[in-house]
Amino acid sequence: MKTIMPHMFNQKISIPVTPKAREYAVFIICLLCMMLFLSSAYDKLTGHDAFEKGLFRVALIGNYAGFIAWSVPVLEAAVAVLLIVPRTSRLGLRLFAGLMTVFTLYIAGMMLRVEKLPCNCNLLISSMSWGGHLAFNVVFILLAWFALRINKNQ
Predict the structure, then answer these.
(1) 89-107 burial: b if 16+ Cβ within 10 Å, else e
(2) Secondary structure of 56-108 in the HEC alphabet?
(3) 14-35 average pLDDT score
(4) Would you say 90 and 154 are in contact if contact means Cβ atoms under 8 Å apart?
(5) In the chain, count of helices (H) and strands (E)?
(6) Quick one: the chain helix, strand, coil %, rounded to 5?
(7) Rounded Cα gap, residues 62 and 53, in angstroms
(8) Is the full-model pTM beyond 0.70?
(9) Residue 49 to residue 66: CA distance in whole angstroms
(10) Is pLDDT of 122 > 80?
(11) How far is the CA of 57 from the CAs of 49, 109, 119, 126, in angstroms?
């Protein structure tokens, strides 16, 4: 008796998708990532003092709080611009995924070391638990990598 099961897992599943559908999917993902970073940058800049004070309270990065408090929102805004310009959207997606990975690793590391973490993210994210925050970040990282994967020929 022959088993079929092992062969099922070795086959690539291919779902036919038109190039236009891929383009729309990538565009929507870029818009979502752009909106996340623009709203986050806006919140960090309009509440700059609170953001910087929150960073000062974290022992590991407190000495660099001034630099981080300006560079993070500026980087988020720059990546948002790259995401919406078609010629630079792939670079924007890579940088978005990279920054989100850094933010996620920072949060995970801080969760292990600090009892009360300051959160000066945008309003939607700041109301989440830290576990929810991590899951949210991972979903956006996966979305960015998915967009890069389905759009690798452009």
Answers:
(1) bbebbebbbebbeebbeeb
(2) HCCCCCHHHHHHHHHHHHHHHHHHHHHHHCHHHHHHHHHHHHHHHHHHHHHHH
(3) 89
(4) yes
(5) 7, 0
(6) 75, 0, 25
(7) 9
(8) yes
(9) 10
(10) no
(11) 13, 15, 11, 17
Q: Which residue has the tokens 């309003």?
A: 123
1 pLDDT exceeds 90?
no
Residue with the larger pLDDT of the pair 139 and 59: 139
Q: Which residue has the tokens 């565009």?
A: 27
Q: Exposure of 3 by Cβ count < 10 A (0-12 exposed, 13-18 middle, 19+ buried)?
A: exposed
Q: Which two tokens stand for residue 21?
A: 């559908």
Tokens representing residue 111 in the block? 């969760």
Structure tokens at 149: 């994967």
Element (DSSP H or E) covering residue 53 = helix 48-56
